[in-house]
Amino acid sequence: MLDLIAGKRRTGAVTNLAAAAAANAAAIFAVSNYAAMMGVKTVKIKRLKVRNNNAGNTWVHIGTGVGAAFVDLIPPLYSIANTTDDYMEYDLPQVETNATITAYPEAVGGGSFDVQVEVDEIG
Amino acid sequence: MGYDLFPHKSGIGLMEPVALIGHNVCVKFSNDNHYRRVIWFEPLPPFQFLNIGAVAAATTSNRTPATRLQVWRNEFAQFRWYPLDAAQVRLWLPEANGRFNLRNTQVPVDPTIVNRDPCLHMTEFFVWEDQNPSFDAISYTGTGITQCRLIGMGYRFVTEALPAADVDRIRNGTLQCTYVIASGFTGKT
To answer: Do A98 and B51 touch (CB under 8 A)?
Structure first.
């Protein structure tokens, strides 16, 4: 079906989160902002994978910014130790942002997280 | 023989040029009628031609000129467009004259247009030379928007003046011509 609003589906790299707290929020998807590009791009998260590598049971935040500037895009996701969570479009509020998407866990317990995001880039 | 091309045409598929090479057109801008013959044209694929920018909740932006839609002298362009972001966008052409006007309201275009009119034929407008349109955005959401991007597509036409004899034949109805409107009209009371 014709959809003139739809963007281009893109994926972020698998990103390891080895440190807790917003101060250590890492970029999981960088929105396109090349100066020579025509127009402004925004992104909506369509799919999210979170692998908990023996990091205990804890919350993982998905948002924008780092440290005090971090803002959640969606409510934090609870992750159980040694499991992989897969969130699809139906599970994810279709928040739109023109900022790079960052993520951090509230604790790592000596382990880490692997996060990968899939987005529609619009514009 | 008449042309089967005309403004706002909605056939099967998407957009068609309003004229082809060799066709006669009359571009109406304000009180001027520019009788021309098309000598060259090219398509303009969908592109983001304007970002009005952030608009706070329940406010209306200033009219923002879309200078990217200008063409050179002796040229006109045909555009269809839609907004990407949650705003009702009004077209002004030129800046003082609203398009899509009723007596008591000016009809805006919002992102639902892509479902209600997927070929966008009701959004079509024409630009004569450097007489670009302006747009303003009515931010109707409770949270405001951080950008208001407009996507446009269409055709660019290069034209030459018609001989006076041909203009007379057009006016007499003996020579085919396609009329296109490149400015708003305020209406008469």
So the answer is: no
Whether B170 is in a domain gets the answer no
CA distance linking residue B54 with residue B11, whole number of Å? 36
Let me know if residue B129 belongs to a domain: yes
Structural domain includes residue B92: yes
CATH of A8-122 among 3.40.1350, 1.20.120, 3.30.1560, 2.60.120: 2.60.120
The residue among A3, A5, A73 with the most chain B CBs within 10 A of its CB, best to mutate, is A5
Give pLDDT tens digits along chain B (189 positions): 467 888 888 766 679 999 999 999 999 998 899 999 999 999 999 999 999 999 999 999 999 999 999 999 999 999 999 999 999 999 999 988 999 999 999 999 999 999 999 899 999 999 999 999 999 999 999 999 999 999 999 999 999 999 999 999 999 999 999 999 999 887 776
In chain A, domain spans:
8-122
For residue B116, is it within any domain? yes
Residues 77-116 of A with CB under 8 A from B: 98
Q: Does A4 touch chain B (CB under 8 A)?
A: yes
Could you give the number of structural domains in chain B? 1
Nearby residues of A39 by Cβ (< 8 Å), 6 or more positions away: A123, B47, B48, B51, B149
Cα distance between residue A94 and residue A119, in whole Å: 10
Q: Does B118 touch chain A (CB under 8 A)?
A: yes
ipTM score assigned to the predicted complex: 0.84
The domain that contains B85 carries what CATH number?
A: 2.60.120
Q: Are B39 and B162 in contact (CB under 8 A)?
A: no
The residue count for chain B: 189
**Interface size, chain A vs chain B, as Cβ–Cβ contacts under 8 Å:** 29
